[in-house]
## 1
Amino acid sequence: MFKIEPDRSQYPAHNPDGSCDIDLSSGKYVKIWHGPNHPGITGNMSLELTICGDEVVEGRTRVGYLHRGFEKLMERRTFIQVFPIVCRVCVPEPDLNEYCYAAAIEELAGIEVPDYANWMRTLILEMGRFNSYMMYLGGQSGSLGMGVIGQWTTYVRDLMLDRFEELTGARVYHMFILPGGVRDVLPDGFAARMEETLKTAERYLDDVDKVMFQNAVFNKRTRGVGYIDPALFDSYGVTGPTARAGGATTDVRRDAPYLKYDELDFEPVTGTDSDIWARADVRRRDTRLSIDLIRQILVKMQKPGEYFAKIPNVLHWKIPYGETYIRGESSRGEYGYYLVTDGTGYPRRINVRGPSYTHAMALLERLIVNTNISDVGALMVSLHTYPPEIER
Amino acid sequence: MSFEWIQIPYALLTLLIVFVYGVFMTTIIRKMGARAGGRYGIRLYQTFVDLAKNYALRSHISHGIMFYLGPVFRLTGGVGLILFVPTIYGSVMHQNFAFAGDLVLALYFVFFGTLGMALGAGESGHPYSAVGITRGLSQMTAAELPFVLAVFAVSLQYQTLSITEIVAAQQGGFLSWTLFTNPIAVVAAMIGFLGTMMRSPFDVFLAPQEIPIGPPTEFHSAYLALMQTNRILFPIAKIVIYMNLFFGGATNWPVFFLKVFLIYLVSALVGVVFPRFRVEQSIRFFLIWGLPLGILSILIV
Amino acid sequence: MRDVLSPFTAWKHLFREPVTVLDPLNDRPGADRYRGFHQNDLEKCIGCGTCEVICQNAAIDMVPVSDPEDGDSGLRPMIDYGRCCWCALCVDVCMTGSLTMSNDYVWADANPDVFRFTPGVDPKPWNEEEKGYQRPGARVLASTERVHMGERTAKDRIDNFEEIVAGYTREEAMIEADRCVECGLCVATCPAHMDIPDYIKAIREQDYDKGLQLLYQTNPFSEVCGRVCTHNCETACAARHDGDPIAIRWLKRHITDEVPYERYVDLIGKPEAATGRKVAIVGSGPAGLTTAYDLARMGHKVVVYEARKSPGGMPRYGIPEYRLPYDMLDRDIDVIRAMGVEIVCNTRIGEDITMETLRADNDAVVLSIGLHLGRSTRIPGAESPDVDTAVPLLRKITDGEEVPVPEKLVVIGGGNVAMDIARSMARLQQVKHGKVGVTVTALESFDHFLADADEVRESREEGIEIFDARGPQEIVTFKSGKRKGRVKGLRTWLCDSIFDDQGRFNPHYDESDELVHPADMVIEAIGQAADVSILGKDLTEALEWTRGRIRVDVDGQTSEPWLWSAGDCVNGPDVVHAVADGHRVAQSINAMLAAKEEAAT
Amino acid sequence: MRALYDRLKDRFQLGELTRQRPDLGFVTVGRDHLRALLVELKDVEGFTHLVLFTAVDWLEDGQFQLTYLLNNRATAQDLGVRLMIPREGASMDTIHDLWPTAETYQRELYEMFGIDFPGSPRVDEDFILEGWTDLPPNRRDFDTKEYSEATFAERAGRESHDPRDHMKQKLYPDGE
């Protein structure tokens, strides 16, 4: 009833390359900047939107607000000096960077990492994934004006940060996964405190289910909105929960198990609708999966053992020529480090493959056309993008 | 009804009481929202501090006369509403400037501020303001419909356009409140109420995550403070009308405080736990749920 | 309908205790492992600057805090918290474990300059904080274990004088060289100030030519020092605080092993053009030959006079061949000869040629005669024919002369010379009798032993008995019979302290703890003296003396303007010290000659 | 991986296969065969997922290495296709019609390495560096340290000492 379809007849036609010629002086269109200083944007990026009425005619992702030239910086640093930098490519889930970088170095230098360190790394990656999802759930509901979820998830995330803090000595950038292993063993009583945190998290997630996912208005705003055709997944490099929400079963943890994932019991979480709701739902269930995995890991981890392999003196560590690519499953999708070494003490090239790179650029620019500007925030949050991955 | 000069200081006193109460209630409602999110929330005096700070600030940025007058109009709407609505039934001091046809004037004041705001914000030339105003006005109109219909129903029911008389008719036990004598009108009115309280799910015209801040985007310093003042006063004024029309009014301050708080609470209870509708979704909501109920209530009467 | 009502369940949080922290500045200490502001234990810190090197963001400056001393540069890290990224690599790499991080992380100040301070020096509330990040376990970013040096087993080596130490292979040397952090603290401690970090780096880069050039810039006795140097550098090595020091001496030897000997002279380069000045040097030990090498490279004509058959001094006549093969010494000497130094052997000053002649024929004379006279304990029985001192005995062994090899002998002394003679005699015993019967009695306890730990260990492996803290009291001789006057044994008392309260040498004995070590022969190895009789009466009287040694200034010049003295005879026994002396004297002479040249023109 | 290589080797004149891991290989191809190879890999061999596309600057050899990393989801295998192009006037054929997302990669390569992709949408539009006039910054010959020293001021009053030189200065200032 009262279905209002916008009149799109007066929109400009798209050119073959996706652009369209917009005559701003015609007065039909308004160009607005969605970001970078904008609560509906995840991080420092912006969308340059051309709107006609309430609808987006053309959207362009603009990045460059925080470009720190990480990849270039890494080329100037020795292999160990790169280690503190990599985590800074992604704030909410920095650990995967540390893992991918360390694993790439270890592969090219031929270092065997102790078993215990691998368990520890798996644990940390799942904790990081959990944190990232917590941030996402708050952001997704917040993008639609429901702040209370964000406050809960921030609290739960904070509890997990407490666990991170006691384990790694830092809250945000943990810098715990060194090339060669990890920095330390679990502190005493960690498993018990973690269980407590997980229980609290589950209680809050139950609340989130009731308040966010069983919410008439939330459903109304997200069901059928932001649909991504699964046929586009490979063309646009769509991976991770975003792809799984469209029925794809791509999960690096299952497809190409790294660390200890082949010893853990889990199935990738998938959805069917490929809309904002499905993506939120997949991530919500993936959060529960992470909780389950953390429990499994803590049970399966053996008693503290060797946690650091013998590595050469890091001050003049040279790695012979080689190139490799290490991938891992981040909370946003496939994350990877492409490392090229040339026999010197410095990397020749490090390229970070962040899922946001493909999601937030070409894909988002395509999805955003003909959406209502009210949905732009929710849509972009639903892709779960972190701008630093675009502009390393 | 004769005019007495003494009514002016009395009315100002009313205004002061309502303002202070409004400040605290704003604070308390915010604290409740914070509690729901697991936070302590702001300190009790924080709203005063914010206001004082903003009033102290001056700006060099100008967007023209109308830009400055916008907040003034907005505040006038709030103050005017208070002044022409009897706050405490039966109290000479807090009768304000109530007169026989004040209901119509009140309805006008409810809309007056929004219009003034629209003019002022439009003058700022910011696209977000423009988008916000378009949305705000269309949604406000849609939200007013069930409310106005409910008011008609009530005035038909009591056969008067004087708020005081409507309140008088509701005296004598809570069962004589409109809430119980004409529940459908109250439901319709409450739907409209939610739509005008600038809270989720009907706050898309402010929508920080979508079109940052909406109409007030360009407002700052003392202008912002004026608008904040209005945002404190205006809901109370509106609630006073609702209280008088539907919930039996108030015969003394404690009852007033309690009733206003409870009615305010309705919007907060809903606002905290729901995300917001898109503008056309909310208009559709008012048209589908509010409008028929409003018409129904008139028909019943 | 459920979807409309369900969200209201959020309100159940309304009356729950909020979860936020009311006073985050005070109520929330960091976790036990938190990486907060740095702490530095100034006593432990040696100012090696490794933290500065590893800091990826150049947040650390090394600033002077105290005076430098051996193994401590006196510098301490100052941290710029505007750049610190709290990665704690500096803590992980810290060579001593002095640098740690407290769990204090809250500190606000309006002045940005206060966020740059020297931990441990500037008073901060967290300086005493126990909690925080400490490197767990051992240092992991650089290896703490020295690469094992291959050596021949006691069984293989006891019946011959072949070199014991195998030397590193390239792989081993690479691993050992990799451990170096290039702090350079060792350079100051090395008497010759060799460019240790640089030549170790040359090994890492497999650039042995460069390594050799670096060695010979500061030490013409690199072959010798690569084997028998006292390696003071290793006591200053930053790595020793948390693991084994770098095997600097073995790495030096490794470079000389790796470069083909034919290339030495080419790599070192030609001397400068001849100046026509002449210098005579008395004694062809490390001090004399280093002086000769330097002066020759500066273009001066140098003649070295040596009393014995072969040049080399103490390294040849004092150090047994199993530690330093003579052809290695010859290689060093041949390099020196290749620089144009003339070495005249079998020429004893005072007999074959006098000091006066040397003085007359040369622009300067250097006296580097070493310490070739053995000292005696002068305890009762020391005059027995079966009592000898170590140095002359070692010399005889080198020259292949006959020495008495009894089945049982005692060595008095705990220094390296004692070990040398004990082990040399043990080898001779093994050859002659098929078994070892050597006892060493040292005045010092093992805690303060003078000889290298390696020497002690190897001696024991070879079957030598070592008694510590024994003060020799009497050499017991047969009082009658066929062997009257011959040695029967050595009587010792336990020595409970060597120095008195003023720090003077004044051993105190516990007479109740007496031992008699049976022996057919006693060798005294308690010190050496210089043979100054060659100077002649006039010169001896003319020179100034201090405690039995010729007094020299910092440049090695004696009170006579034409005479310099260097090496053991002025500074006590130490090869690398002698080399350093040689450099100093050569510099001084060169300066004098240059001044002379200038005055002449 | 080996079987795949053998199938394609002669048709596309592939260079040696570097097997970094059982599931990751790198292979070099000539410019003429690149597009055909990518199409074959994508449409026939199941390498449908363009994992990443980037460049490596071999300044000393005067060449850029372009790396197209493709993933076969079904077999969980990765193949990195390497292509060397001269640094001077670097230019390469666009592949945005095979993978639309390559448009972004090509914009970045244009900006960061100065590699042109004629025909790629908005390839010359600013990507990250608005108003950048210096060398493309990811080229090896762009010196970030030099740039930052020329552009930004150091914090005043910072001075460090090398332990070795400091000790030399204090303990034996005259040299040997």
## 2
Amino acid sequence: MDNEITLSFIAKSENEALARMVMSSFIAAIDPTIEELSEFKTVISEAVTNAIVHGYEEDGVGKIEIHAQRLDREIVVSIVDYGRGIRDVSQAREPLFTTKPEQERSGMGFTIMESFSDDVEIYSIPDRGTTVTITKRFVPIQESSRIV
Amino acid sequence: MDNEITLSFIAKSENEALARMVMSSFIAAIDPTIEELSEFKTVISEAVTNAIVHGYEEDGVGKIEIHAQRLDREIVVSIVDYGRGIRDVSQAREPLFTTKPEQERSGMGFTIMESFSDDVEIYSIPDRGTTVTITKRFVPIQESSRIV
Amino acid sequence: IGEIQRFLRDDGMVKISRSIRELNFKIRHATDDFLKKHERQPTILELASILEVSREEIVMATDALRDPASLQEQLYE
Ligand SMILES: Nc1ncnc2c1ncn2[C@@H]1O[C@H](COP(=O)(O)OP(=O)(O)O)[C@@H](O)[C@H]1O
Ligand SMILES: Nc1ncnc2c1ncn2[C@@H]1O[C@H](COP(=O)(O)OP(=O)(O)O)[C@@H](O)[C@H]1O
Ligand SMILES: [Mg+2]
Ligand SMILES: [Mg+2]
């Protein structure tokens, strides 16, 4: 393990920006491109927002933990909440599926997480909480320029 | 309590920047000036550096925890290590006192923390660890411009 | 400077470290201007609105003044 942190914070929307910044600093050692960083922040943002709005449904009542590990250019991040959980995980993953259409949620959160990362695992127990574990490998700059 | 976070990380120098960043994001809600932000970061930096170089003496062997609370414009931050501890706390606080003169340490860490904050408390048990608790009140902008 | 800015805008592959340095430079200028005009330091929100970036970007960029290597150097010099 090259590095490892745990961040624990109150589930409120103000802290979604905090979580994004902490994760940005955590991957600074990788020196990502602007695009990679912005994709990674989007992934974190979707997962943390889900924990706040679906996990707890109300600002300021619960706790969220983020556990992140880095090994060379691979990051594994778990976003943990102790909220209401997800009854049907494969349904939740489906594009456009949302249980909060009234709040203008798009139902695209998990789809976005999947497309901007290498792996998304969801572990959830109803009324106990949800852990979303995201793996992201950052390609060294030489390789990515070959692809582009 | 307006907000509250806990960060736990490996005691290594790369994470001193991370800790600074996390605390910067945490106080962003107060909307400090760049100068206030930079003073506050210096305080965090001195405390975290102490935990790394004096608490554990070696990179990557121990854990550091930062616990921060915000109430309106007041921040209380504790920096905790489980390292060698401080035998004589009042001596350690003295300007220019250092147990590592060979590493070009200035012995001014605690003096800097004190001058850039409103209160610094040190609680330490030899061979058990050290907790440094810093209180900082941010003056609203109207008042500070009146002073200037 | 114009050339660097264009490069930063056009190319998603630019290293974040470089774009942060660029913003840092702008922050210093904006702070000087603000000080002259208002005789006090700008807050990070004021800088964010002047430079049309987010508060987070201001916080990130001002931190780049001290790179993580500096402590390493202090430790092993
Ligand atoms: N942390 C969570 N706790 C409880 N339910 C969740 C959580 N994350 C996601 N869900 C469920 O999965 C659904 C799909 O999530 P997502 O793809 O992000 O879409 P959206 O957030 O727009 O609804 C949500 O509507 C919600 O029912
Ligand atoms: N977290 C800590 N664990 C053990 N000893 C510490 C810790 N923080 C400070 N000290 C002791 O207090 C002394 C003074 O600290 P400081 O004022 O920061 O000066 P410096 O770090 O330059 O030595 C250190 O030299 C060290 O002996
Ligand atoms: Mg969502
Ligand atoms: Mg010191």
## 3
Amino acid sequence: MTEHDITLTVNGTDHELTVEPRTLLVHALRDELGYTGTNVGCESSLCGACTVHLDDDAVKSCTVLAVQADGATIETVEGLAEDGEFHPVQSGFQEEHGLQCGYCTPGMMMAATDLLEENPDPSREEIREGLEGNLCRCTGYQNIVNAVENAADEMHAGAVADGGCPADAADGSGSCCGSDAGDVRWPEDGGESE
Amino acid sequence: MEFSGTFELEETTVDEVWLALSDPVLVEQSLPGCEFLIRVDDTDVDFDELRDETTDREVEPTADPEVIAERAFEEGGHYAALMQISVGPVNPTFETVVTIDHREYPEMSAVGEGSSSNSSFEMSSGMSLSETDDGVAVEWETEADVFGKIAQMGQRVVNPVANRVVKRFFSSVQDQLRERQLAAEGDATADESDPTESDRGLVDRVLGRSGSDSSDS
Amino acid sequence: MSIESIDPDEVDAADILGSAIERREDPALITGDAEYTDDIQRQDMVHMAICRSQHGHAKLEDVDTSAAEAMDGVVTVYTHDDLHREDTPGGGSYSLPVGWLLDSLREVDHPILADDRVRYQGDAIAVVVAEDRYLAHDAVDAIDVDYERLDAVTDPVDALEDDTAELHDDAEDNVAFDWEIGDAERTDEAFESAAHTASIDLENQLLIPNAMEPRAAVAEYSPGTDELDVFMTSQNPHLHRLLMSGVIGHPEHKLRIKAPEVGGGFGSKIHHYADEALVAWIAKHLERPVKWTATRTETYKTDAQGRGHRTTADLAMNEYGDIVGLRVDTTANLGAYLSTFAPAVPTYLYGTLLSGQYDIPAIHCSVTGAFTNVPPVDAYRGAGRPEASFVIERLAKLGAEEMGMDPAAFRRRNFVPEDAFPYETQVAVVYDSGDYEKTLDKALEMADYESFRERQEQAREDGRYLGVGFSCYIEACGLAPSELAGQLGAQAGLWESSLVRFHPSGTVTAFCGTSGHGQGHATTYAQIVANELGIPYEDVEVVEGDTDEIPHGMGTYGSRSAAVGGSSLVKSSQKLVDKAREIAAHQLEADPADIEFEGGEFRVTGAPDRSIGIKAVAQQSYLAHDMPEDMEPGLEATSFYDPDNFVFPFGTHVAVVEVDPKSGEIEFDQYVAVDDVGNQINPKIVEGQVHGGVAQGVGQALYEGAEYDSNAQLLTGSMQDYAVPKAMHIPEMETGSTVTESPHNPLGVKGVGEAGTIAAPQAVVNAVVDALEPFDVDHVEMPMTAERIWNAVDGRTEPDAETETPAAAADGGTDDPDTAADGTGGDS
Amino acid sequence: MYPDEFDYYEATTIEEAIDLLEDNAMEETELLAGGHSLLPAMKTGLSSPDVLIDIGEVDALHGVAVDDETLEIGAMNRYSDVLGSEDAREHAPALTAAIERVGDRQVRNRGTIGGNLAHADPASDLPGAALVSDATLVVQGPDGERSIPADEFYYGMYATDLGPAEILTKIEVPSAADAVGTYAKKPSPSSGYAMVGVAALLTVDDGTVESARIGANGAMDHGVRLDPVEEALVGESLDEETIATAAGHATDELDTALMMDDLQASGEFRAQLLEVYTERALEAAVDRAAAPAAAD
């Protein structure tokens, strides 16, 4: 078994490290690089506590090998706030009491930011579906949904105030503020009550 | 878990199937993922040793009843098998020991247990042969218990995989029977004798058509 | 609808108590700064992993650790015998104690590493220490264990059968205890004279707690001082310190237990497990820091599970629909060993709550505890009270049906009346205060019950099946007083301790022996203390969860923190104020009796301009230049608060569901929760607790359940197979509250941590059964999966078809082959 | 949580990957695509390969293109890549409808369509849709390239026609731009995998069904077409009655004794769900047919 030298850019900082092939990205982040904000909650890739952004997409870092992420840009919860200002999703979680024990929260917020980039103005139902990859055992989710709604409003207001559109900045798709959500949200299949 | 089913083998006879299923070599070659199946003295088996022993061994598939008689399953006999069960990327290798606890034409049953690094199983199975319009029906049933990782994590796949192993086993038996028949037909042309006729007596004699014969061997 | 949270800066000091301020815990948690146990790194730290049984029940023939020991990076491997070696320091018991005794209890040995027998899959056989966590787990796989498998049992009723294999030599027929409460004779009489009865057979399934953070521990030892520090996922560090000191033989005063940030507990982090003791013992033995973090599959096999009851219950009514008697017979699954508080859960936390909100003149309940080959069963959110509430509220539904009465009216008729408090039940508790009609009325209004039956009728005409379910629950929390607990078998007091300390500059640190793990104590306790001392909220810091810092404590569980811990903080604050008053009086040259204290100011009665602020008093107390005679300097106070009684929160939850009989699927139309938890310190946090509790209750009703096969192999061994509810599984909840103060504590609070979990299951089950009334379905076992509901309906014809007699219907679902087959659980 | 040791190779071309497969033929070797089936199996100790060959970054396995009425999807496209492709959504409406329901957001950002199809999990969301889309799976091995129709690709649970040194390189789907495609799924509440999932691809003219392809996954040990449902639809008007009648035929040609039967659902219940979800997939098709623009 050969070890591999890899490079990870985490929250804007480049790191070089040597890992075994089997080292999971989440362990590289936590144990090797000290980004312990990202938590591990299960090993079946279901709970989403370990969610980070890998090259701008939310992924479960327990289901990515560190070697697979060689050369990638990673954003963790530690990188959400900018210049000491909370990201609107963070403020949303605090204002709406969207967390209790806080263990699922980093992953939940990383998934939520990814959701809001794709769909800046989700309905409550869409938020619930959009967070299906993240489990929370404390809150009953209602205040998490509130938190994401709150963040969406905040980001929308911020964008309007800036004269811009969060979606522009986020993915360059050009769709603005959910006005043609059809671009990013697929029509419902129907019948998939759950 | 209990599984059971009936497998229909076409264009064959109960005797032929009995002979085939009495042959550890045919069984070994028909069991998907079976590296070896060999007779052992008792149930306390050193598989590392067996692995070494079996690396260069040659096993001859044959339809020759005399040869099969030499190595046929015996009631009370113990057999060791190394079985790899593949389910997509999940490929545990089970060190398995089987004991034939009943063998009386046309019925056979066995108990066994196998273990891999983090899982194990126990099973008891039985089968009986009967004649049908165009061949033989093998009625089989297996009761299996699975333990460890596979029981905990692989619950969804155990049942269908077990079914698949059985299905592939019998379709492989069917293929081997067909090959034997073809070979036998070839022999028949050469010898101008009737192997089926002469075989039958031999089957009776060496494969324990009466239960009392097999128990003292 | 939702309560809006407030920035604490915008709240007047006088209004801080009761304000829905944002939590001060959150900034660390939402930035990743918070430190959970697994985040802790130490130089030279080694990792522990545990080899656990592959079988539910087996003899250990041989444990061969040689291959594991030979692996590169493996430091050492321990088995049972290593714990008892002569060179082992300390000499502990190496067995886990049980902290609650009953007269008939068979105490069984629970070694932290199995000796010659394993009794459930989580049983630890050997423990590996390696240089990193991957290696440690590799080495566990290399341990070769030779088992002789034994017959296993997982169902508590089966466990008691004569021909079932016994788990423990000293527990004949697998009976852990027999226990009863109430008056059997009177109850029999009530049934003899009853005009109507309703009955049910039910299973309250085993649940796996699933705190999002798996259990974990990091221990480090200083040989020079003999100090052993253990950082662990604990709900009650002091209790863990006491228990662990005995288990591993390390003196209590040299053992420090600190709970860093803890990612949820729900009961599962109360108990003392083998794993954390092993971490501590190894750290001491190796003199190196040791870390262990459970994998999720390990938590599924080892975290104490909850519930696990099989119950038969009957309700007797007179001709008018008054409940005259209740009879309950329960067999409780205790799992393979007695966990820390296991014996209390299906007895004193269950039988005593069976009267529910009702005035029932005769009750009798018998409980048999059974050992089975599942993990130890102990407190899980609600702990005994959800099981009790489920029984009585399912019977209330069936009783109303039997009487042909509206289920709300039937309940109202039988409520303990508002003027009857304090009310002594027939099952040995005295309800402190209550107004049950008020919560019911509010819930009915929020759910628009008046129009519901019409909607239901109309929907049925369209082939849609709506149902409403009520749960008028009662809860007991803040177990107390200690004297009573002792009489009942507790091996611990149930007081709470706190210390409130003024610093010379005027800020305050409040230490409390509870140990929050998501409940927001840092916020609510600061609200309490700031209010008591009349100082700004931001001047109060709260410290919890560290045996080195906090005088003593009993921990956080059973919804006790506000009622007992919060009250203790009030007591400490009051003591502190009393001392400050004397100093103030001295400074103001007045008699202490003439000093009023309000808003942080001491004033001389009748001379309001003669005043001194409490911060100034604090400063004076440390300067100590001018103190009353014989008074010690400094300003702090400690209290051990032992409440007079439990507190009894209550409420009404209403679920409205639509059931699709073709698919067995359920959709929530509405979920209304009206809770009375007494005074609310922080309504936003109260609301959050209700939400989370309801979600776990809905989880039990619809999704969750530990399933074992006949060999006690856990089949729901991961989140792939055990459904922890996701966001889209949980309904939008409408919450409301009433306030009936508890007279038993200075805050008038009652506790809210478990309310939702206790209330929700029967609200949902009652709603589903109500929806399926046209199909003559009386009961569906939990979790009510789509398949179970479909099975309950399948083959039954619709409304006009012949219906069973009400008496037969009241027998519960088990007469029906479909539901019976379904109800037995999943060893298919 | 901790996979066993293995050797890791990253292939940059298809040929290199095939060479690596051949070089490591004596070892237990797995191809690593998105890893969302393989890594969980490795983390829980169920799977323990000696060698992983990462093909996720092979350029030739990426990209979505339309050529002569055929949509080509590179095997290493992540689900989210496919969903982000207007071409895919236009020409393979049933497949994209199914992809929308795979796993969760994070899984769709990482898992690949080729990994899914090659893994052949019967409870995955794609087999039914691959069948109704008449997909062809293009594989490449030491002996060159071959094309396998979806209905010949699957043998059973996790079993496909892929040879030991072959790699699934792309999926070809004949354009169904004139059809409506839907997918209705009953997910396991725990794993999210399909207890049953039904994909439908219909062309409807003036309310009458011109062609119908209905496929299911989750119910049997591999994806199946529901021929009797299709027959009951073609030539009929797509109304409630037709749908109910057609859905009633969902299990007609399936051996219900061989239905998947596990902790999540019994075979009998799956049979029932298959009818219900066939109905829902068709009802969804009605909605889409009524508003075709919405499908874009």
